[in-house]
Amino acid sequence: MIRFNCSSCGRYSEVPLALARLPLLCKGCGQPLVVPEASTVEPEPPPRPAERPAVPKLTKPVPVPPPEPEPESELADESPKPAPKPPVRRKPAPVPEPAPEKPRRPRANPLPVIADGCVALLLLLLGAYLGELLARKPTAQVWRDAGSAVTFPPEDLILWLGPPSVLVLVYLLLASKGRGVGGWLKRRMGGGESG
């Protein structure tokens, strides 16, 4: 280790041998200095720990008498009292701005859904009529025979169920694409997308 003092401020420094003859800045004053090849000062002795005075050990605790109250005098009342501190005025907390209201969606009109339901019911009735024509039996007799048939489902019930099922399912597919009566009503009222 190379030990030296700054030529400007006299600050003691200690650097490794590898830094000999290199320019550095003093940590005390910030002036440039060149590290000497060998130590120019002796190392500073480490500081000794402060000695504490020995405290004698007591075998018995000594009771401490309570402090006596000071007598009140007339002068104590006449002494000037410190002025009360003015209250600290704090800035009012900033009032948060209300969140912008979300645009309300227009209430859904139930009329297109009701119209689709009515059309599906009419198609179901039309399909039942066509089923009667295919089965060549009235609807009540088809259902009565289905309950007492040896094999289930009987051929008459399958013939009767075909037309109502196909008509209702096709209409529900069209309605889901917006091509039914309900979709037409939505477009007509301006409440839906045109498709």
C-alpha end-to-end distance: 88 Å
- SSE pattern, N- to C-terminal: EEEEHHHHH
Percentage of residues in strands: 5-15%
Shape: elongated
Using the CA coordinates, give the radius of gyration. Answer: 52 Å
Largest sheet: 2 strands, antiparallel
**So how many helices?**
5
Lateral strand order in the biggest sheet: 1-2
Query: Which blocks of ≥5 consecutive residues have pLDDT under 50?
Result: none
Helix content: 25-40%
- Average pLDDT, all residues: 79
Alpha-beta classification: mainly alpha
The count of strands amounts to 4
Written account of the structure:
This protein has 195 residues and is mainly alpha-helical. Among the domains are: 2-34, no CATH class; 111-189, no CATH class. Helices cover 36% and strands 7% of the residues. It has 5 helices and 4 strands, in the order ββββααααα. It has helices at residues 74-78, 111-135, 139-147, 155-176, 181-189, and strands at 2-5, 12-15, 23-25, 32-34. The strands form 2 sheets. A two-stranded antiparallel ribbon has the order 1-2. The protein has a two-stranded antiparallel ribbon with strand order 3-4. Strand 3 and strand 4 form a beta hairpin. Helix 2 (111-135) packs antiparallel against helix 4 (155-176) and helix 2 (111-135) packs antiparallel against helix 5 (181-189). The radius of gyration is 52 Å and the shape is elongated. It starts with a strand and ends in a 6-residue tail after the last helix. The model has no long low-confidence stretch (mean pLDDT 79).
